[in-house]
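[Q] Does anyone have a clean C-alpha cell version of this?
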Amino acid sequence: MPAKPRLGQNFLNDTDAIQRIASSLGDLSGRTVIEIGPGGGAITAALVARAAHVVAIELDPGLATHLRTLFPPNLLTVHQQDVLAFDFAAAGEQAGQRLLVFGNLPYYITSQIVLKLAASHAVLDRAVLMVQREVAERITAEPGSRDYGLLSVTVQLYGPATNLFTLPPSAFSPPPDVHSTVFRWRFAPRFLELGVDESRFLPFIRKIFAQKRKTLSNNLRAAGFAPDLIASALIRAGIDSRARAEALSIETLASLWKAL
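[A] Here you go.
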C-alpha cells in the first residue's frame, strides 16, 4: 500500500534490519508485544513469529484493515486508533504481564509518544524504538554533551536507554530525509532511588532546562526561586554558581531539588 506522508509513514524494507529489530526485544516466547505504527506489517510478521501475541496500534484505517487480513486474530489484535489515546494499562491487565513495545515512531510526534510511554511505565518492561537519529542522540546523551537536555533527563529518569544501530534513508520506502536510529529503553524508574517526588520533580526539571543558554541560577530565578535560597541550595548540592543544567547529572539535579 502507498505510504501517506501526512501520517509520517516510511515503511522499513531492509530484511536484515527487520530481523535485528525483532531480536533486539529479546526472548518473546510467551510475551505480549505492543507495536506502534506497524504500517504494512513487515516488522509485525517478525514479531508474530516470535511472540505469543502482538497488539498493533495503527492510525491508518486502510493499513489496519490490511493487517487484519495478514494474521489470524489469535496472533494479532489491531487497534485502529491514535497511540496517544491507547490504554497501555488496560492492555497490560489483559495480558497479565508487563508489556514489550516496538515502535517505528512518526517523526512529527516522537516526543509525545515517548512521554506517553513514560507515563505508562508501570505496565511496561522494555521498548525498542526507531526514531530520527538526532532524537536518539538526545535521548541517550550524557551530562555535559551537546545533546544532553530535558529529553535526556526525562527519559533516563524512567530507565536506561541505549542506542543500538542506525539505518540510512535507503532502508525505507519512501526514503525519509534523515537517518533513523534504533534504541532500547528498559523501564526502571529512578524516583525512589533518587529520593524525589515524580509529580514535583518533573516540572522542576522542565523549569531549569527552560532556557539552555541561561545559567542554572538564572533559570531558577525565572522559575520564582529567591536568590538567597538559590545560592544556599547550590552550595549544599555542591554546584558551581555559573553552572548550566546540561552540565549536571540526574543525581546532582536531584540533590539540588532536595536542597531547594
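[Q] Thanks! Anything notable?
[A] Residues 3-8 have pLDDT under 50 and may be disordered.
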